[in-house]
Sequence to fold (71 residues):
Amino acid sequence: MDNISDIAALRKWNSIPEDIWKKLLQNVFCGTCGVTTIAPGYTITFKKGLGILQNGKCLKCGHDVCRVIED
Fold:
């Protein structure tokens, strides 16, 4: 993970088993490419009532992507 905007996001992210978060990083939707991988440089934040938000770029085309990992 490259950027963490808050400690709550880090705690939540670290509570996910490594094999699961690897799958999450490789299963992000891009409006251009469909299912893709999030490129290095993504950020995570925690939104109460929603969960973890991953924001970054599509590894294939570079467009913005976002994934919600529900709490």
